[in-house]
Amino acid sequence: MPETKEFTYVDVQSHTGKKDCYIVVHDKVYDATKFIDEHPGGEEVLLDVGGQDATEPFEDVGHSDEAREILDGLLVGKLKRMPGDPAPSAATQAASASTASKSDSAGMGVGLYALVLVGGIAAFGAYKYLQVKSESSK
Ligand code: HEM
C-alpha cells in the first residue's frame, strides 16, 4: 500500500534528480520521475521543485482534474512532518491566507450591503420623522 508509506522531508529531499524526482503536494509524496519528460509545463519546473514541497506552484498553475489524476497515479506515500522541517504548511498557510482574504473581502461586501441597508433604513426613518413633524406643525 504505497499511500501508507511515510517519508520524512529529509527522505524526499534526497530525490531531486531527473532520474529520481519526488515532489510533495498537499503533504503527499509523488514520484514525478516518469512524468518529467511528459509534463506539458516542461521538465524544468518539475526539476525545480524536485525533493521539495510543490503544493503552492502546483496550485498556482490551476492544474486540471486530468493533471490531478496523473498526480494520483504517481503517489508513493505521505509526508511525515518532523519538527524543524521547512514548514510547507507555509504554502498551505499562504493558500488559506488567500482564501481567508477572499472571504474577508466577501465579508466586506456583506458589510457594505449591511451599511447601505442600515443607512437606507435610517434615511427612511428620518424622512418619516420629518414628515410626521411637519404634519403636526400644520
Ligand atoms: C507531478 C506533478 C505535476 C503534474 C502531474 C502536472 C501535470 C500537468 C498537466 C497534465 C498539465 C496540462 C494542463 C492541465 O491539465 O492542467 C500541466 C501544465 C502545466 N504545469 Fe504541471 N504538473 C505537475 C507539476 C507542476 C509544477 C510543480 C509546476 C510548477 C510551476 C507546473 C507547471 C505547469 C505549467 C506552467 C503548465 C502549463 C503549461 C501550458 O499550458 O503551456 N506543473 N501540468
TrEMBL record:
GO terms (molecular function) for this protein are: heme binding; metal ion binding
Task: Provide the Cytochrome b5 heme-binding domain boundaries.
Answer: 4-80
What are the annotated GO cellular component locations?
endoplasmic reticulum membrane
Question: Where does the sequence pass through the membrane?
Answer: 110-130
Where is region (Disordered) located?
A: 81-106
Predominant subcellular localization, coarse grouping: endoplasmic reticulum
Topology of the protein relative to the lipid bilayer: Single-pass membrane protein
Gene Ontology BP annotations: sterol biosynthetic process
Q: Please verify whether the record's keywords include Transmembrane.
A: yes
Composition bias (Low complexity) maps to: 87-106
Could you tell me which Pfam families the record lists for this protein? Cyt-b5
**Which InterPro entries does this UniProt record tie to the protein?**
Cyt_B5-like_heme/steroid-bd (IPR001199), Cyt_B5-like_heme/steroid_sf (IPR036400), Cyt_B5_heme-BS (IPR018506), Cytochrome_b5 (IPR050668)
Keywords of this protein's UniProt record, alphabetized?
Electron transport, Endoplasmic reticulum, Heme, Iron, Membrane, Metal-binding, Microsome, Transmembrane, Transmembrane helix, Transport
> Where does it reside?
Endoplasmic reticulum membrane; Microsome membrane
SUPFAM superfamilies in UniProt:
Cytochrome b5-like heme/steroid binding domain (SSF55856)
| Superkingdom classification of source | Eukaryota
Stored Gene3D superfamilies:
Cytochrome b5-like heme/steroid binding domain (3.10.120.10)
Q: Which PANTHER family match?
A: CYTOCHROME B5
Similarity annotation: Belongs to the cytochrome b5 family.
Recorded protein name is: Cytochrome b5 heme-binding domain-containing protein
Organism encoding this protein: Alectoria fallacina
